[in-house]
Every structure is written in structure tokens, then in C-alpha cells.
Amino acid sequence: MRIVKPVKIKDYVLDGKKIYIQSMLNTRSDDIEGSVKQAIELEKAGCEIIRAAIPDKESVALIEAIKSKINIPLVADIHFDYKLAIMAAEAGVDKIRINPGNIGDMDRVKQVADICREKGIPIRIGVNSGSVEKEILAKYGSSTPEAMAESALKHVEILNKFDFDDIVISIKSSNVNKMIQAYRHISKVCNYPLHLGVTEAGTERMGIIKSAIGIGSLLVDGIGETIRVSLTGDPIKEIYAAKDILKSIGLYSGIEFVSCPTCGRTRIDLVSLAEKIEKEIGNIDKNIKVAIMGCVVNGPGEAKEADIGIAGGDGCAVLFKKGEVIRKIKEENILEELLEEIKKL
After folding, report:
1. pLDDT tens, position by position, for the chain (345 residues)?
2. Which residues of 299-308 are buried (b: 16+ CB within 10 A; e: fewer)?
3. What angle do CA 318, 324, 329 make, to 5 degrees?
4. CATH top-level class for 256-344?
5. CATH no. of 7-248
């Protein structure tokens, strides 16, 4: 098991005992009202850490505006300008994402490290396959997983030089295989908390698939302390996808939903029924398994481990709990009666 150096961000401790879900605002940085609204919506959806781009001094105003309306940590995403990092720290941000090697001479890095140390603000070093330094690329021939890890550790050394060690690392790639290999490599050579994600994963369909494979593979290996599912679109969907990834491997509380793909034996409208039930139970906070099966072949038998479920018949279904049939339900009443039984559990 990987031993993680604990890093505190506001009230959270990144130490491997819990996986925290992140997302990033995609409202314009000059739209304070819209950014605050989206931050509130993300927190309500289950986001645990929010990141906001701070591209100029005017956008620093986002920090106070957002923090006054949410209870979860806020991360400032900074590129190149060390002054913005200092301003974000002074404004009370909870964490800063920056690459020390990209902000100029060492005196600038020292100023950022000093104020973050003084205020207890951790720094996330974010490396991706397109940001590896030229000399490292020359050494490895391309942005290999080893090259990405070496780039990240180079930035770590810069911060360590100025007595700063509250560090989180991410080494993302849009290539799933490369991303997995990069995180596996760096997990063996350092003990800093790791933020997982497939960068530029795409729109919802492929983005969720790529993220589930990349993030899920690493989490199963015990690698990763925070995650972000990066999707082109509504960031609320990133939260739902992240929850589902964590639920699927037993790392997030909530209902585990299973349903069969249907076949020629199916005699009820299982597809629409499954969609309705999944939507209705999405926010129920119960650690139970619910099964929606098309027939008795897949019903109490294959799904006997489910806490509750239904197996379709001809215009009806049987309700079962832990493989034991309880009663028969008419097709038109399945949704209502199943939901009522779930509430009782």
C-alpha cells in the first residue's frame, strides 16, 4: 500500500484515506455572478474541491466572491504570472495550481513559496504531456511517462529548495495508456498526494469512458487522492461521472445500480423502467445494491447479492430481496412500489 505524505487543503487532508472529487468552473473569469452560481451548483452536486482560472488581476475578485458562498476548498489556477499567485494567496484561496519552472527566475518562485508557506496554502504542480521541458524531451525523445514524471519532480525540487513541501502532483495526458503509466511511475518514486485525471478527455460519451478507464485503473491500484473527470460541457456532469466511477469500485457511498441488457426473454419495458429508476435513486444516500433484471433467469439468481430488485415476467415482475422472492407486482406499478421498498431499507 502506498504511504502518502498528508497535505491539508482547508478542512481536508489528502492522505489516501478518502478520494476527493474535483471540478473546474467553465464560466468566463470576468463573469463573477455566473461563476459564483456555478460554484454553488457544483457543491450541491457533490463537488468537494473547485478550481477557477485566474488569468488576470481582475479575476482575483472571484476568490472572495466564491469563497463567501461555498464551504469547500477553492483552487486558483495560475499560468506563468507569479504576481497572480501572490494575489490569490493574499485573497484567501485554499490552494494554488502552478508550475514553478514556468514563472520566471527563482526569486519569483521564492516569493510564491514564502506566502503559501506563511498562509498554509498547498501548491499543486500540474504537468501534462504538452508541458514537458525541452531538455527533458530531448533526453527521452518524447513526452513519455518517465519524462512527465521527471518534469514534475523537477518542479518539486524547485519548491523544496525554498523550504516548501505541501505539494500535490498531477501528470495528466489525453492518452489513457500514457496517463496510467505516468501515474504508476511517479507513485513509486515519491509520496506526494496525486490528483488524477485524463486531460482533454473530450465530450461526455468518450470523456467518461476514457476517464473511467484511466482514473479507475489507478484507484484500483491504490493510487490517487483526488480526481477530476474532464468533460467538454457542463461540469455538473463531471461530478456525477466521478461519483459513478468511485461507486463502481466501492469508494463512494450511495446506491449501486445494476440492470441487465435485456434479451428475447424480456416481456416488460425494462429499458425505460431502468432509466426512470436510476434517475429516481441517483441522490438517495443508502449503501445498498438495486437490481433491475429482465426475467427470472437473470433475476433472483444472478442478482441474488442485490439488497432489493425486480425480475420481469409477462406484464409483471417479482420483487426480491437478497435472492428471496417477496411478491409479484403489476408492470404499471413497478416503479412506485420498488421506490417505496427502497425507502424502507
Report:
1. 789 999 999 999 999 999 999 999 999 999 999 999 999 999 999 999 999 999 999 999 999 999 999 999 999 999 889 999 999 999 999 999 998 777 778 999 999 999 999 999 999 998 888 888 889 999 999 999 999 999 999 999 999 999 999 999 999 999 999 999 999 999 999 999 999 999 988 899 999 999 999 999 999 999 999 999 999 999 999 999 999 999 999 898 888 888 999 999 899 999 999 999 998 887 788 889 999 998 877 667 777 788 999 999 898 999 999 888 999 999 999 999 999 999 888
2. bbebbeebbb
3. 15
4. alpha beta
5. 3.20.20.20
